[in-house]
Amino acid sequence: MTQTEPDCSPRALLHALRSRYPDSPFLALGQTVFWDEPVKAVLRSLLDSNQLGGEILVGVHDTDYFAKTPTRQTGPSRFALLAHNDGSTRGLWSAAGEISTLFGSETLTTRRDFGRYGVPFRQLAAVQPEGADAFLDRVTEAFGWRGLVYTGSDDLIVHNIPLADVGDAVFEMLDWGFGRAVEQIVPGCCQDKASRVVEQITGWCREYRAANPKRKLTDLFQHVLPRLYELLLGHASEGIKVDCTAHLLMLNRETAALPRFRFVDLFLNPETRDIAKSAYNLAVTGTEIYALDKFGPGGLPFDIVLPDRGRGTLRVTDRVVFVETPQPVAIGLKRPVTSISELAEVLNARLGSHVTLVGKAVSLVSMLAQEFIFVFHEEGSMYVRCTRLMNDHLAAAGVQLDMRPILRIRYRTWDSLSEAQSTMRLPEHLASAFGQPVITAPEFAASWRRVMSEQKALLAEVAALRKPLDLIGYLKVHDPAGAWDETEESYRAAVAALQTLRADAAVIDARVKEQHSLLRALKAESAAVQQERGDHFRSTTDWTLEATACRAASGDRLGELEEDKHRVRLRIEALRSERVAIERGPAAVAARDVLAEVRQKTELARLRLVRFALLTTGGLPHIDHRPSAWWIPLVDSSGDWFRRIAATTELYAEPLLTT
User: Fold this and answer.
1) Could you tell me if 322 and 330 are in contact, meaning their C-beta atoms sit under 8 angstroms apart?
2) What separation in angstroms does the CA of 564 have from each of 137, 352, 519, 530?
3) List of residues 6+ apart from 309 with CB closer than 8 A
C-alpha cells in the first residue's frame, strides 16, 4: 500500500486497510497509561462509527528498562519524581512513569535556546543569589512534567517491577499531576466534576493495588488501560484487547511460527542472514545507534528478556547462543541455529518457556508489522526512518517482505476544545501569551493558533533587540507590570551622569595630553643637549677654561631639564589621579551600579519572555499531537471534547517500504 495523503477521509483509509488486511489487528503500544496512549480510543470510535469492525490490541510496552538517574546509588530500592531541565537532570529520560499536568509537556527551554534569542545566559546565571546551578535548573525546567525514575543500582525491566515496590511512587506521581490539573479548573464551573474523574481513575489504581499486592506494575497498567479507553468512549468495547510486549513477544515452541517472529528468521537463515545484517548496519550508519559488530560476534538487532536475569542482546554464532544480560548466558550448540523455531528450542531447553524476544528500536516495528498494523501518533517513534531504510535495503537485495503500513493519527486537540464548557486557569506562561489568567475552553480553541503566531513573532523581535533602551521600550508594551518607565528614567539618568563625568574626565585628559606633549619636548631637548655634550667632548683636545665652562653649562642644562621632566611627571600623575577619582568615584560607581541593575532586570525580563514564548510555541503543538488522555474527561466530563477530537482526526498510512 502506498502512502495515503493525510487529507484522505478516515473512513476511506480504514476501509482500505481493513479490506487489504482483514485479519490484522491494529496494535497500539505505549509505555505508560497516564500519557497519550489511550487517546487512540479515537481509532476504536472511527472503526465503530463506520461499521468497519477490526480489533485493536492495546499493549503496555514493558520490556524496556525503567528510567534511572545517571548517578547510581547503592542501598534499598528507591523511586524519585523528578523534573526535567537543562541542568541537573539534562540527561533524564522516563517512559514507564511520567505524567504531565494540564497544559504540561516535556518541552525544555535550554541554554542554547536562550542564547539564540539574545539572552546573555552565562552572565545572568553568574550573578544570581540562588547560585548558577539552581538558576539553570529553574529557568530551563519543562513546565508541568514529572518523570518517575529509579535511583538504585540495578537495571529494572518494567515487566518485572513489583507493584509493592513502586506503588507509593506511582500514587505520588498521580497526586502531583492530578492535583495540579484539578486546581486549574475554575471552581463553580467544572472543578467538582474534574475531581470525580480523578477519584475514579485513582480509585481503579487503589482498588487494584489493594486486591493484588503481589502483582507487577505492568499488571496495574493493563488493568487501567482499557478503563481509560472506556472512559473516553463512554462505553465498553469488545473490539479492544489488552496485552504487554513481554507476553506478546514471548518465544517458545508454540509461538515461534507466529508471523511476528518471521522477521527474526531473516537474521538466522543462512540464505538471508548476511543480507539482513548488512541492511541493518547500512540503515543505522551515521546515527548514534550501534552497528551489529559493536555487540560482538554474532550480534543481532534483538534482545532477550528473562524474568530472573533482565534484558540483553542476542548473539548467535555457529557454536554458541549468547544472551548478554547483566549475568550473561552462553548456550553451547550441537549444530548451528538456522531458524526461529530452532532458536526457540535452544532457548526454551536452557531457560524455560518464559523467554521474550524483542526487537531493538529499529527492528521492533518490522517484527510486529508482519502481523499487526502499528498505530502511532503523528510524532510517535523516532526510529521509523531507519526501519524503512533497513527494509528498503532488504527488498533491494531480493528479500520478500510482508509489511503492513503504520497508521498515523493526527489530532486537532486544541481546535476541538471548542466543544468543552470548562473554564480554566492558565499557567503563567500561557496566561502571559493569551493575555488573561482565566479562559473558557471555546475561547482557548478559538485563539490558540493566533497566540502561537504572536509568540513566534515575539521571539524574532526579541532576538533583534540589542540596545538597552530598545529592549526597555519593547518591555513597556509586552511586560507592562515591570514599572519600565521608572527603569528607563533611572537608566537615562545614570547614562547622563556618566556622560557628565566622562566630559569632566575628558577635560582632564586633554590637560594630561598637553603635559605629555611638554614631556616629549623636554625629552627631545634633553637628548639634543646630550648629543651636543658628547660631540663637544669627543672634539675637544685642549680643555681650556672656555671648553670646561661650556661643558659645565651643558651639564647644568641637563639638570634643569631633568627637574622640569620630574615636575611634568608629577603633574601628569596628579591629573591622572584626578581623572580616576572622577571615573571611579562614588558618583560613577553609583551610576554604573544602576546600569548593571537595569541590564540585569531587562535581560531577566527578556529571558522570561523567551521562556514563556518557547514553552508556548514548543508545548502547545506537542500537546496538540499527543495530549494526555485523562485530561479529556477531566476538562469535559460530557464527552463532547473527545467526540469532537474523533470527528476531526486525520489518518494517514506510512509505508514501511518505500516502494
Assistant:
1) yes
2) 63, 105, 8, 16
3) 323, 325, 326, 327, 329
For residue 475, give the C-alpha cell.
518591555
Q: How many CB atoms lie within 10 A of CB 424?
A: 25
Chain centroid to CA 302:
27
The answer to whether 231 touches 200, Cβ cutoff 8 Å, is yes
What is the mean predicted confidence (pLDDT) over 406-434?
A: 96
Structural contact between residues 145 and 88, judged by C-beta atoms closer than 8 angstroms: no
Nearest to 253 by CA among 339, 357, 367, 341: 341
Cα–Cα dist 251/249, whole Å:
6
Please report, rounded to a whole number, the percentage of residues in the chain having pLDDT higher than 70: 97
CB 14 within 8 A of CB 46: yes
149 phi, psi to nearest 5 deg: -130, 155
Rounded Cα distance, 71 and 153, in Å? 9
The three-class DSSP label of residue 330 is strand
pLDDT tens-digit readout, 153-189: 788 899 999 999 999 999 999 999 999 999 999 998 8
Pairing label, strands 373-377, 26-30: parallel
Bridge partner list, 650: 410
Please give, one letter per residue, the 3-state secondary structure of 181-228: HHHCECCCCCHHHHHHHHHHHHHHHHHHHHHCCCCEHHHHHHHHHHHH
The pLDDT of 585-597, averaged and rounded, is 94
Q: CB count, 10 Å around CB of 500? A: 13
pTM, to two decimals: 0.89
Question: How far apart are the C-alpha atoms of 46 and 68, rounded to whole Å?
Answer: 38
Coil, strand, or helix at residue 315?
strand
Read off the pLDDT of each residue in 309-331 and give the average, rounded to a whole number: 95
Between strands 310-316 and 320-324, the pairing is antiparallel
**What DSSP string describes 524-579?**
HHHHHHHHHHHHHHHH-SS--HHHHHHHHHHHHHHHHHHHHHHHHHHHHHHHHHHH
C-alpha cell at position 94: 522516563
**Position 539, amino acid:** S
pLDDT in tens, 350-386: 999 999 999 999 999 999 999 999 999 987 667 899 9
At residue 286's C-alpha, the angle toward residues 283 and 291, to 5°, is 60
Task: Give the residue from 492, 508, 470 showing the smallest Cα distance to 585.
Answer: 508
Compute the 3-state secondary structure of the chain and give helix, strand, coil in percent, each to the nearest 5: 55, 15, 30
Report the distance separating Cα 538 and Cα 606, nearest Å. Answer: 75
